[in-house]
UniProtKB/TrEMBL annotation:
Membrane topology: Multi-pass membrane protein
UniProt name for this protein: AI-2E family transporter
Transmembrane helix found in the keyword field: yes
Membership in a protein family: Belongs to the autoinducer-2 exporter (AI-2E) (TC 2.A.86) family.
GO CC terms of this entry: plasma membrane
Domain of life: Bacteria
Annotated InterPro entries: AI-2E-like (IPR002549)
Compartmental location: Cell membrane
Pfam family, one: AI-2E_transport
Keywords of the record: Cell membrane, Membrane, Transmembrane, Transmembrane helix, Transport
GO BP: any one term: transmembrane transport
Regions that span the bilayer: 20-38, 44-62, 69-95, 161-179, 219-238, 244-268, 280-302, 314-347
Amino acid sequence: MTLRSVFRGWIEHYFSDEEAVILLVVLVLGFAVVIWLGKMLAPFLTALVIAFLLQGAVNGLTRRRVPHFLAVMLVFLAFIGVLLAMALILMPLIWNQLINLVQETPRMFASVQQLLDDLQVRYPQLVTPDQIQTWIGMAGREVTQLGQRALTLSLASLGNLVGLIVYLVLVPILVFFMLKDRDRLVGFIVSLLPRNRGLMTRVWQEMDDQIANYVRGKFTEIIIVGSVAFFTFAFFGLPYSALLAVLVGLSVLVPYIGAAVATLPVAAVAGFHFGLGDQFLYVIVAYGVIQALDGNVLVPVLFSEAVNLHPVSIILAVLFFGGVWGFWGIFFAIPLATLLKALVYAWPRGLKQRRQEVSREEQAAGP
């Protein structure tokens, strides 16, 4: 068997059906549009995600016999209220805490240097003065680079202020019309697809529940974990509670890695503020309980549809899609990986089922 015959057999197996070719073209065009026009279409894509999140609430109200337009208005007004609360309350609080943290950095460095000096006195054979100076120099360079990046980001943000205002105005408008005219928009998109779309329908049905469950569940998980972390840190009197809580909430986007990464700033702030005493231990234990409850209680409750992916597949998906699309790539890494898995499993099975249906139709038609 030659390489040419193997390749021809592979093509005939996967792409001999018209639906398979059309599905491949749709997927390639969709990914190409997002990759090359992602920045231009960012308000539209953001509004699409938010509308998808809010659609569940609209459906819940309509099931309780609330008129569709009234349900859309109630959900949209609630969304605007949350958006204003974040813009007027949460963001200024986080910004002030971030400024205070930057201002307190020199004192933290002094504490670290004092700790290293104590280690050098206690263990002169393990920690030398040259090592201390090397560590301090490395840390200083990292902080300097971080400050330069922050300054560059701030200057760039000032230049894009008009764009940001347009973004904040355009996204709510798009969300409203996507909720209000959902059936009309979906009908228009469906009308562009071919009539014979059995394979696409099977793949979408397999993915619809998982995507909806994952996106809404992950958003709910971020809110719950971040809120619990904020009240826990505030209870112990930990400074920068809001800033750390936002970091802990967003850490759930990256499975396995996010919790470990978020532990470092929490432990660092607690260590600088409380010292390595009982209060520090209480904060770390409380943070560990939050992570344990999230992984063992909250996640199974929120995600009713299990995402059966190997941890290596999840990490690779986060790295790839995060590198391509940034934050949204990380957010949708698991659904996209699940979509690819569903395609791999449904494609040959769907083609085989299609051939069997055609064969039965031909047999029923007779000679």
